Amino acid sequence: MAIKERVGLVVSDKMQKTVVVAIENRAPHPKYGKIVVKTRRYKAHDEENKCKVGDRVRIQETRPLSKTKRWQVAEILNTKA
């Protein structure tokens, strides 16, 4: 089974070694066709505390690291300038 990966935006870095990453899913409504934006927030492990709010990151699924943390930061794609 392949490792799941997602790309999203860091919305919080207030915890130690943990960031909250928001992933947007844009899909048309099944009946009305309007594009609906659904946002899902994942807690991801950031070992070196390198991620800052506004960074675009790629996260990948990993074993459970805590009660709510099941993802880890694979790479920082671009930083907030």
Automatic annotation (TrEMBL):
<dbReference type="InterPro" id="IPR012340">
    <property type="entry name" value="NA-bd_OB-fold"/>
</dbReference>
<dbReference type="GO" id="GO:0005840">
    <property type="term" value="C:ribosome"/>
</dbReference>
<keyword id="KW-0689">Ribosomal protein</keyword>
<dbReference type="InterPro" id="IPR019984">
    <property type="entry name" value="Ribosomal_uS17_bact/chlr"/>
</dbReference>
<comment type="function">
    <text>One of the primary rRNA binding proteins, it binds specifically to the 5'-end of 16S ribosomal RNA.</text>
</comment>
<dbReference type="InterPro" id="IPR019979">
    <property type="entry name" value="Ribosomal_uS17_CS"/>
</dbReference>
<dbReference type="Pfam" id="PF00366">
    <property type="entry name" value="Ribosomal_S17"/>
</dbReference>
<comment type="similarity">
    <text>Belongs to the universal ribosomal protein uS17 family.</text>
</comment>
<keyword id="KW-0699">rRNA-binding</keyword>
<keyword id="KW-0694">RNA-binding</keyword>
<comment type="subunit">
    <text>Part of the 30S ribosomal subunit.</text>
</comment>
<protein>
    <recommendedName>
        <fullName>Small ribosomal subunit protein uS17</fullName>
    </recommendedName>
</protein>
<dbReference type="InterPro" id="IPR000266">
    <property type="entry name" value="Ribosomal_uS17"/>
</dbReference>
<keyword id="KW-0687">Ribonucleoprotein</keyword>
